[in-house]
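Input record (one chain):
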Amino acid sequence: MMNLRLNSLQIRAAALTLLLATHASLVHAADALLDALPPSLLVPGGVAVVLTAGRAVEARFQGERVFLGEYEGEQYAIIGVPLSAKPGLQTFTLIAADGSRETLGFSIDDKQYTEQRLTIKNQRQVNPNPDDMVRIRAESAEMTAAFSSWDETQRPTLAMLPPVDGIRSSSFGHKRFFNGEPRAPHSGMDIAADEGTPIVAPAAGIIRSTGNYFFNGNTIILDHGHGLISLYCHMNTIDVEVGSEVAAGEQIGRVGQTGRVTGPHLHWSVNLNNTRIDPAFFLQID
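The corresponding structure, as predicted from the sequence alone:
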């Protein structure tokens, strides 16, 4: 009887070990595997790369889910910092498999972005009328839903290709004035190019949304997985359909001057944890 009892306990212990190992592998698989570890850019509009204290199944910053990546066996939280963030300590929450929570922090420095003053000929693109506002609110809701996507089926890369061959005409974070009136800071990178110049996907992903929007003109939203989502505006043509998968370097459209523009260019934005951050960050990663 003693031998049978020991065998039973051993069997149960082995089963528990297998269960824990299986669970650990599932947690491990939920992280995005990184080819390279990006540096932190600890300023408003930048990215915090924080080594986690153990393995979390989820992390949240300001109510939004955070990209968790694995590099050389270590887990990192990769967090987009909003332009509105104040210098100093920022905190985020790690959630473990058992539901326990831990707060970690990182500090950001101040950054002063330059001003940009633009003249827009169409006054409605500066001060929309009531009918325009109805359209703008509907389009905003549609884009918000696309930016809220969370897809763990993809393995995202943080090293991106330039989406178009051109000249950077306006950088991220500019304090903008349209016809002398202050507006929200510039939330992306503008790349000037001739109308019709091909635009390519800077990284593989799934097309979440396309449309012709009041401010953005012809637009594509591309989901790279784990809350990493990019936006392409003012296009001449949209050459992809919602739900289609695209590879890095694959053409998705052509440069145009639709929406609120002063000339042909691509407006390119990148989101992490539903936060617009500087696209230049992704062009510098090896």
